């Protein structure tokens, strides 16, 4: 007898839950809003978008190439007469210089100077100031050295409207004339 009572109660609860879910779906459809998953739903991590995976792949590959280059790299130069920062591309020497929003390699990447087409074409790292092969490609942007701070140099990027943006470069990529 108890088994029958429990079966009936369980059936009523299941029917009630399904009815409630059906009502929520209908209400959500009418309100044109997304259906919220039940609280007990397992959270599934979605795969990274293809563009993010592509950037990760480019980043890893080009970083490894730079690391294996040893001393065969190109540096940017700071000229003492006007504090300008210049980098001239050399196809036989690797370089990949990021300009950061703060003096940390984990901060936002604002600018990129790189020998690698995969770094520059289409600005895959979405650097706000752009991605270039060399400083002469920066038609509407000039770089000026400000000061050295630990392992970074502080510079300013000046656009054609004279708007200035602070940019930090790792000191290892900069040579002073």
Number of H/I helices: 3
The main sheet orders its strands as 5-4-3-8-7-6
Strand content: 25-35%
What is the helix content?
Answer: 25-40%
Number of strands: 9
Structural class: alpha+beta
| Global shape | elongated
Average per-residue pLDDT, rounded, comes to 79
Radius of gyration: 28 Å
Could you give the distance between the termini?
A: 96 Å
Low-confidence stretches: 33-51
SSE series: HHEEEEHEEEEE
Tell me about the largest β-sheet: 6 strands, mixed
| Integer tally of domains | 2
Describe the protein in words:
- The protein has 3 helices and 9 strands; from the N terminus they run H-H-E-E-E-E-H-E-E-E-E-E.
- By secondary structure, the protein is an alpha+beta fold.
- It folds into 2 domains: 1-41, no CATH class; 70-176, no CATH class.
- A hairpin with an 8-residue loop joins strand 3 (96-100) and strand 4 (109-114).
- Residues 33-51 have low confidence and may be disordered.
Summarize the structure.
This protein is of the alpha+beta class. It is built from three helices and nine strands; from the N terminus they run ααββββαβββββ.
């Amino acid at each position: 007898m108890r088994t029958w009572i429990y079966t009936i109660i369980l059936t009523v609860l299941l029917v009630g839950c399904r009815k409630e879910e059906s009502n929520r779906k209908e209400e959500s459809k009418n309100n044109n809003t997304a259906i919220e998953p039940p609280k007990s739903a397992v959270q599934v991590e979605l795969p990274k978008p293809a563009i993010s995976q592509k950037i990760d792949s480019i980043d890893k590959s080009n970083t490894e190439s730079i690391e294996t280059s040893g001393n065969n790299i190109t540096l940017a130069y700071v000229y003492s007469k006007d504090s300008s920062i210049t980098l001239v591309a050399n196809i036989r020497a690797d370089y990949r210089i990021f300009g950061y929003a703060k003096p940390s390699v984990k901060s936002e990447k604002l600018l990129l100077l790189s020998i690698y087409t995969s770094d520059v074409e289409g600005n895959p790292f979405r650097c706000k100031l752009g991605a270039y092969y060399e400083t002469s490609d920066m038609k509407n942007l000039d770089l000026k050295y400000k000061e050295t701070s630990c392992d970074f140099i502080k510079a300013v990027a000046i656009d054609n409207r004279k708007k200035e943006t602070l940019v930090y470069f790792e000191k290892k990529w900069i040579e002073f004339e």
